[in-house]
Amino acid sequence: MRRRIPMSTVVAETTPQADQPARTTLREGAFGHARALACRECGHEVALGPHYACPECFGPLEVAYDFPAVTREEVEAGPANIWRYKALLPVPTDIEQSPNTEPGYTRLLKAHNLGRELGIANLWVKDDSTNPTNSFKDRVVACALSAARELHAKVFACPSTGNLANAVAAAGARAGIKTVVFIPSNLEKPKQVNSAVYTNNLVAVEGNYDDVNKLASEIAGEEEGWAFVNVNVRPFYAEGSKTLGYEIAEQLGWRLPDQIVIPVASGSQLTKVDKAFQELIKLGLVEDKPYKVFGAQATGCSPVSVAYKDGVDVIRPVKPDTIAKSLAIGNPADGIYVLDICRRTGGAVEDISDDEVRDGILLLARTEGIFTETAGGTTVGVLKKLVETGQLDPELETVVINTGMGLKTLDAVADHVGAAATIAPNYPAFVAAGIL
Amino acid sequence: MRRRIPMSTVVAETTPQADQPARTTLREGAFGHARALACRECGHEVALGPHYACPECFGPLEVAYDFPAVTREEVEAGPANIWRYKALLPVPTDIEQSPNTEPGYTRLLKAHNLGRELGIANLWVKDDSTNPTNSFKDRVVACALSAARELHAKVFACPSTGNLANAVAAAGARAGIKTVVFIPSNLEKPKQVNSAVYTNNLVAVEGNYDDVNKLASEIAGEEEGWAFVNVNVRPFYAEGSKTLGYEIAEQLGWRLPDQIVIPVASGSQLTKVDKAFQELIKLGLVEDKPYKVFGAQATGCSPVSVAYKDGVDVIRPVKPDTIAKSLAIGNPADGIYVLDICRRTGGAVEDISDDEVRDGILLLARTEGIFTETAGGTTVGVLKKLVETGQLDPELETVVINTGMGLKTLDAVADHVGAAATIAPNYPAFVAAGIL
């Protein structure tokens, strides 16, 4: 039953006629309640498949659904991972039966201490650092893995410098599908190890991340049966971020927050959390109410924040220069949609310096016991700045998303913390040191 | 209402009479359904308090309960963390209201690939690496924190070289209680950073772990109001490991496994998982059935395994020399109880070399996408050896516990994995490299 499917970049042989050969190889319900891939720009719909660009206007394709009725009780009876929302994702109804990393349903912590520190009355941290490979990427990769499986892909791959590589290599190992992970050859050894433990096929590419990315697109176009999670199965992959929005609403007691602060790299996560909130409203799972969405960037890579502040609709690409490397996308694909959403909801996009990123990491660790990576430091630091500049209302219920964990970017803070004292191993020495 | 309570090592002023002053400062239900601290050796009971050694025979004190009736439905209606079992822990009924790290309810993964590799028909991995600070220590520390709070402790402290330090510093930060963490001064910088991000009071002690430990006991005896999690509130702390056993049974569908493999450092975790299984049987939450418990050690620190193989009841302390540092306790406090349990249930204690520990890490990563630390490598490697030597029945349902995560012991595998190829950033170079 397995056959090789060309993972083409645009739709060619698989236009949405029912008698297409590529369609017939898909099993019934392979993508759950997903109906088609719809262009975000022109609305043109194409058949579900390994496509990411609209054949009409080259706009980005997004999964469109015919949702069934879904009740809170059905969701609550599901497993403690993202598959509790499987009816709202492009995955088959038996998704739990296929080996996957079972990510999600991470902690939503009431942040009493951080809230007090920042003067925010009602603050929550959604902590995605406790996912299987310690970042939100496990969510999107789990959805991409399901698509790769249903499309009979033979290779599961990505270009990445960090979190995504970990998530792809781990998920592929568990699923028993061959993985190939492409990284810049100058990547630090620890980051290489963190992917190489899972896969024999870590490929170092002489060049920067843009070069690696370009190579991945080239391979996706040339080779058959390769599923590049963030290239040719990107529409399915991106849907995984919706689960962050679903979980926040459910964990608040089926209620949307008033304000939410989200880091912006490609911008995909922010747009998908907004999509999730809109879907929950349409499905009647939460009450319709206004909410404000805020985007967070590091100043060293802040093309969306710059456009927001300039009041323009065009993102001017930049060459990243920041310690927040997991946010360092100079030409963010979904940047314009981030602008749309933040403006439409009355939110904002803001950016902070690398020193403020570091301060954000330590602030979150000292107040809530969460050790985040530079992306989380950025989001917490931006939250602080948003309050100080009056852009965020400290009286409204606010959620901030932490997307990753500090052990992956240890260097960012290594020279800024350490032992308070070094003492001889006896009680008088301890007393003399004056600890506390 | 706060008062300083001497955190004494043995019971003096707080014998179990109802009119004792120390008792009256405890609020009603401070320790849930816990009745007393009972000596594991002689059964003597003393009042609940900051004590860990029996005043009669100096045996270890353990929490004893008068359990209420508990139903599966009540547990299932609880939160997705250890507090779903709060009725079975020495914590108040409103424990969720007090800021804590909300650990537990981690993944139980069906290990198809690892099972196939080892020839085990029905294998599961309980993965505790996704806890808030990435080890099972978050469970025990959460219970110790509750005890410290109820006892009005002013300082939350521990001696540690790694996982415990992270868990204590993080939990203390979130709870807003002062933490002091003692480490050997020669500890690697990354491990220091991983605790120092959370606390200002990281104290480096000139000496080895035994020296640090001794200093902690000295301070616990001299200072008032210090709760050392693994010293004077150890009985409460240790109960947290029971939740691993509860979760495994619940996640299997309220059923005990036939065999379980658990790493042995002090031996506490293994004894508490057995205690959890026994409690579930007594409470009627699972069917009574035989199960075998297996202990895993690294050969470089295998005093319990040596005693098991020698058929003796006495643990001969050793000087640890292994890469599995989180298991490197040369004189394990609960070693004799581990021997008891493994012999009584028909299990065994086994040990493996450091090379086999490394192989175990990579085996788990390659088969199930879980990057474990050296302790997990030890457990997986021992599982393999138990099958090969015929000590574990490959036809029976088996659970193996992973207690921590690989980023904390990266050095163990850093020189053993890496890029498969380094290529120029173009398609012909990729083809020429012959990947796959």
From TrEMBL, chains A, B:
The keyword Lyase applies. Its EC number is 4.2.3.1. It is an enzyme of class 4 (lyase). InterPro entries: Ser/Thr_Dehydratase, Thr_synthase-like, TrpB-like_PALP, TrpB-like_PALP_sf. It comes from the Bacteria. The modification N6-(pyridoxal phosphate)lysine is found at K137. The lineage of its organism: Bacteria, Bacillati, Actinomycetota, Actinomycetes, Propionibacteriales. It comes from Nocardioides gansuensis. One of its GO terms (molecular function) is threonine synthase activity. Residues 103-404 form the Tryptophan synthase beta chain-like PALP domain. This is Threonine synthase. Its cofactor is pyridoxal 5'-phosphate. Belongs to the threonine synthase family. NCBIfam families: thrC.
